[in-house]
Structures are given as C-alpha cells and as structure tokens.
Amino acid sequence: MPASLDDFQVISTIGTGSYGTCKKICRKKDGKILVWKEMEYGSMTEAEKQMLVSEVNLLRELHHQHIVKYYDRIIDRTKAMIYIIMEYCEGGDLATLIAANKKNGESITEDFAWKILIQTTLALKECHRRKNGQAVLHRDLKPANVFLDKDSNVKLGDFGLARVLHSESSFAQTYVGTPYYMSPELVNNLSYNEKSDIWALGCMMYELCALSPPFTASNQSELNRKIRLGDFPRLPLKYSIELDMIIRKMIQVEVSQRPSIGSILADPLVQKRREALE
Ligand SMILES: CN(C)CCCNS(=O)(=O)c1cccc(Nc2nc(OCC3CCCCC3)c3[nH]cnc3n2)c1
ipTM score here? Predict the structure, then answer.
C-alpha cells in the first residue's frame, strides 16, 4: 500500500537544497526517524518531470551500506509536490563538519580521513557499477552531499536530484555555489567521466583535511586557470605522506594518470587501513 503524508509526523526542517527542502520526520507506525526531501514539480517541463522520475527510479536501485537508503516517495498532485523519503543521517554532512573545524581550529584525525576516503570510494564503486549499461556517475560529489550516520560512517546522498533542477527556477540561481571541484576536463568542456568523480573525491578529501579546497580563487576564470595548472599545497604536516600522495594522485590534471576506483581499493595501504576499519 503506497505511503501517505499522514503516515509521518514532521519534526523539523534540516535545510533547503538546490531542489527543495529537507525535513526530519517520524514514521508514526514505528517511530522510525527518517527524512523527506520535498520538491515542487508544478513549474517543471515534461522533460524535467521525466528526469525526476528516472532519478528517483535510480535512487530506488542503489542499495549499499555507504549510500543513503531510499525508502519511498509520496506524490501530492493537489499541490504538485513530491516527497522523497530517505534514511536520516544523525552525523550531519561533511560541509558542516569542515565549517565547525575551521571555526574551532580543530582538524580530523588521520584515521578518520582514511575512513572517509575508503567508505566514499566504496560508495562511488557502487555508483559506477554499470546498472543495465547505465553508469550512475555521481556528478556532484562534495562535502554537502556526504553524510555521516550515528557511528560516523559515510552515507553518500543527494544523487542526481540537483541535476533535475530546472535551470530557470529561482532555486537554480540561489543555490549555484562556486564549482571548486570542477575537473580540468569539465573546465575544458570535455565530457564528464568516472575519473571526474575521482578528481572530486580527491578535492573533497583535501578540503576535509586542509579545511580549504585545493584550488581557490575570487572569480571563475582565475579558478579555471588554477585547476588547469593543478598545483596546490601539501596537506598540513599532521597528515602522513601516504595520505597526501593518494589524494595528490586523485587530483591530477591528466585523466589517465588518476587512479581508478579499483586501483585505490587495491592499494596495499588502503587495504591495511580497510582491515583496521572492519
Ligand atoms: C553532531 N553534529 C555535528 C551534527 C548534527 C547533525 N544533526 S542535524 O542538524 O539534524 C543534520 C544536519 C545535516 C544533515 C542531517 N541529516 C541528513 N541530512 C540530509 O540532507 C540535508 C540537506 C541536504 C540538502 C541541503 C539542506 C540539508 C539527508 N538526506 C538524506 N539523509 C539525510 N540526513 C542532519
């Protein structure tokens, strides 16, 4: 029996993303805490609605311990609203963690950095695993899209939903952030590929440790120039040369020089770190 809005109690609003609002909810029948992302589709074109349907269908197919679990969706045709119900991540998102560390002058440990690197790589591996020939590239890997559960395990979220965004909508203009993680191939208008997600992963890991993205600038053209050059400072010295090296390998301008997901996971150091996690 499809879920309905009154099966849930809204607890609070967590925030507003590029596509709509995220609310913390409680499922009345068992008290389970979840979230829903509510999106208004009334002003969407038929093509955008079709994209939304296919994005939600992709979400339904992704089952992995490090990917935010999709539960259900509710469509309220009277208000032209869709509610996408997903697991709640108690630990919040990495962007909040980075901002808090920056504010308090704190930094994550080396162990935690490896844990995030490994678990996010495993989540990307699931995304890239070809699903009926359709690779689900994340396309928007950034700290705000990586959540933590109560045990600070990674939950990769917010697939494609941001992509569904209809460009002329007010949300689009309001929520366009600086694309710090844009890869050189995207800057050069070449095609997005699996190695572009690796570049973004390297940038995210760098920012998580250094509390600043590898490339920063006050305008897009200056940022593009720095990205094309690919030079950035070493991680803070508290982090090992191995961590700096594996992140540096991911942030290489030459696509073919970047490691694949398989080679990251096959790295002896990563294997050792993975065993320590299990
Ligand atoms: C302990 N503290 C450091 C952290 C406190 C943390 N508690 S908190 O303040 O409610 C909090 C903060 C942020 C996230 C979450 N959990 C969460 N957020 C999602 O999306 C957030 C949304 C994404 C788009 C932009 C607007 C926000 C999810 N999507 C699927 N599952 C989700 N779970 C909870």
Answer: 0.90
